[in-house]
Amino acid sequence: MTRIVIPADPPETPRLEVDPAGIRAFAQDLRSASAQLDDLGGFVTGGARIGDWQGDDSSTYHQTIGPLGSRADAMSLALRSVHQQVDQHADEMTQLLEDRTDLETRRGHAMQWIAGLWERARGATEDEAPAIQADADACQTACEELAAAVTAWQKRVSGSEQRMVAAFGRVATVEQVESRYGGVADPADEPLSRLPQDGTPEEVNAWWDGLSRAEQLAVISASPGSIGNLDGIPAWARSEANETSMTRDLAAWELLNQNGTITDDERTWLANARSAEDALADTRQRVDPVTGEPLVSQLYLYDPAAFDGDGRVAVSVGDLDHADNVSVSVPGLTTDMSGIGGNVTNVRDLYDATRSMHPDQTTAGLAWIGYDAPSGWDSGSVAFEGSATDGGNRLADTLDGIRASQDDRSHLTVIGHSYGSTTMGHALSDHDVDVDEAIAIGSPGLGANADDVSQIDVPDGHFFVGRNSDDPVADLGDKGWVNKGDVFGAGRGTDPSTDDFGGRRFEAEDTGRGGPPDGWVDLTPGVPDTLIWEHSNSIEMHTSYYEPDSESLWNLSQIVTGHTGDADIMNADHVYDPWYDGPRDPEKDADVSQPSTSRRVP
Amino acid sequence: MRAVTVVLLSLSLLLMACGPDNGGAGGDEKQQADDLEAARARVLDDVTPVLSDLGARLPAQLRFSSGKYNACKNDFSGATAVTYAVNGRLDLSGAGPVSLDAVRAAFTDAGFEVEDEDDGITVAATKGDTSATVSTLEGEPALLFAARDDGCYEVGGDRARAYSVDKDPITLG
Amino acid sequence: MEIVPVSVGTASRAWDQQNVDLTSAAGLIGEAGTSGFTAAVSGPADRFTSDWQRFATALATRCETQADGLRGTIETYLQTEFVVQDNFGLGLYTREQR
């Protein structure tokens, strides 16, 4: 009778009931409250002082407010210290959850190993026994190592919990706060004093990179408004700063809204802030189509009161700091901050398509409403280039900022839709920018300074145009010699899909092409309607460029991921204007395909 | 023609600003919601047996699946009509190259018609209104799958956001 | 009798705004969700947010006290015989807006 010692089942790693995302949200609330307290401290030494008031009452007042400001500063620092520990605790818990998964996988393998040993041992002969025992010994060693790893894991869990509880306990009373942080200089003050005023993105980035991690975190907490929209600061830091501001704004304006003392302006800003919050939350609920991990979303721009309440905002889908490919989408007509959700949906569709078509590359897209786009009832202003020129300045700054803040250069694409392409045109023609690709979709023209590709700052052969032949807005640009001149001034220069412009046109037809115009009422039953309208000119033909499984999104995804060879793109013929007739669009008669944007491209 | 275009564009903007909700009356909304839910159920019913079959054949484990409502019609404010789509990933237990023959067989056994076109990395198949693909991943022992309904269902601009993500609609045995 | 300049009125409004901001900060702390923590941490976290909501609320109250004090100074000043005419609209600041 041969005796083989087979190891017992290894211990299970205890369940870890924790939600790191919830812990991060808790940390964010503390950080925003800390920033609010810091503002009070600043107010007491600044705006609260009344220099032209003399006398006893004035003296009493100024003596009273001093301690109040000191208390606020101490509380701000205390809360910030807790925030940092909470943030670290969230990181640790995230890692512990991942490690638990690994430990349980190892345990599963060990259990299979043990089951196999029992199977082999059951029918083993004397000769086979030593080999099985050797294997069992190896399994025993693996099980012991696993048990030790589980024990170590449990110690890390309890260590992290103890550090967190201790951080709460260190500032549990006002006396502890005063004792620990009273009179302590804010570690953000000195770094902020060295922030380059009106510096270039490169100078700003050099300043940021020169700060320690602790100083960077202190600046984000103490003065989120200083860096949240500052080009040259990395996207992760801008996002943390802007979310701190957004959380604080939402809390204040929601309170005023409940109290009934909110002003009309504040109500508009509140709606803008809510739109940004929703866009971030919606994106973070979704998962990457390759890894299944929650999507990263960064609040790259946040200024809900800008442009008389239209607001200024940019939200990413993906990590702008580290993605292989970065795209910036510039929307056009009827765009203000409240419309960020729809624009982020477009960018999310682009993200999903690029990841599914090229899973080996990482991507990030930015929905950018950083200029005063014509919106609502001021859409009449589309006839003027002023907003596009100003927007072009701002877009060029954003593109420079992305370039300056990345450690590794990404493949950068700018996409202008509708009048956003005019803004893009100004960024590319009025400034030196460093993009790899530029794409105009549904474009009424790239503006007064861009009659052809030679006038825009894009590498040769890397300016692309997507134009649905039925798109009424894309129909507005100048085409050839017969058709010069804008009707009502609605066009914005040369139609970039024309042969004269010199861009590369890709197929972007919509399967819904050729339907009746919007609001069409058939007053002539029996007469073929297509005798009455040449194109449908439906606005849906202008708003479908990002739709999944469309020619347009497929081509956009190819370009954004750098697949720009002739064979990589679904090439389309240009619009041309023969001398004997009006402009012609060969795509009008082309077949419309539905390429899958969710399958890998060879 | 240009003048007509501008007039139509202005008319479109006016209709969007003043017109009734694209979603239509309450009864229509319910019917549209029911149709969309039926499409969702149909896609999941069609694709789940394929994934289960692959799980056993290869063998493979479902790493994640994610359901969503893709826009198929938009206006300036966002989606006005959507279709249901689901995608996800199967992680393969064994090492070595993946044979797409198993994928074709799983589709065929589940009643799908497999496309003839073969690019060596993806198998595409259809069953009624459901279109599906399964692609290999380069350098990783895994398959990505995607399926969608070919219909397009009106939801109206004000209801589009209500169709939030259905994160894990598929579970295998 | 010292003159009370209009800047005292604007300062009282600014203190009102600080009161609003600190009250909202107190709300942020008090409503910060602790359910993401493990059971060992969520209890101390609840206690922490409860205490700190109280601290921040106390600070907000002190801001409001400053605003009320300045308003009181203005009212007293306007009631003295020294002031025959409110040329600078100081009286507007005796009413609390928020």
Question: What can be said about this structure in brief?
Answer:
The complex is a heterotrimer of chains A (602), B (173) and C (98). Chain A is α/β, with parallel strands linked by helices and 602 residues long.
Topology:
The complex is a heterotrimer of chains A (602), B (173) and C (98).
Chain A: H1 20-45, H2 56-122, H3 129-170, H4 174-181, H5 189-193, H6 201-209, H7 213-222, H8 224-227, H9 235-259, H10 264-285, E1 299-303, E2 312-317, E3 325-330, H11 340-357, E4 363-369, H12 386-405, E5 411-417, H13 420-430, E6 437-441, E7 463-466, E8 504-506, H14 551-560
Parallel strand pairs in A: 3-4, 3-5, 5-6, 6-7, 7-8
Antiparallel strand pairs in A: 1-2, 2-4
Chain B: H1 2-18, H2 26-57, E1 60-75, E2 78-92, H3 100-109, E3 113-114, E4 122-127, E5 130-136, E6 142-149, E7 153-154
Antiparallel strand pairs in B: 1-2, 2-6, 2-7, 3-4, 4-5, 5-6
Helix pairs in contact in B: 2-3
Chain C: H1 6-31, H2 39-79
Helix pairs in contact in C: 1-2
Provide a descriptive summary of the structure in words:
Chain A is an alpha/beta fold and 602 residues long. Chain A is built from 14 helices and eight strands. In chain A, helix 2 runs antiparallel to helix 3, helix 9 packs across helix 10 and helix 11 packs across helix 14. Chain A is flat, with a radius of gyration of 30 Å. The two termini of chain A are 60 Å apart. The relative contact order of chain A is 0.07. Chain B is of the alpha+beta class. Chain B is built from three helices and seven strands; from the N terminus they run ααββαβββββ. In chain B, strands 1, 2, 3, 4, 5, 6 and 7 form a seven-stranded antiparallel sheet that branches. In chain B, helix 2 packs across helix 3. Chain C is an all-alpha fold. Helices cover 68% and strands 0% of the residues of chain C. In chain C, helix 1 runs antiparallel to helix 2. Chain C is rod-shaped. The two termini of chain C are 30 Å apart. At the A-C interface, helix 1, helix 2, helix 3 and helix 9 of A face helix 1 and helix 2 of C.
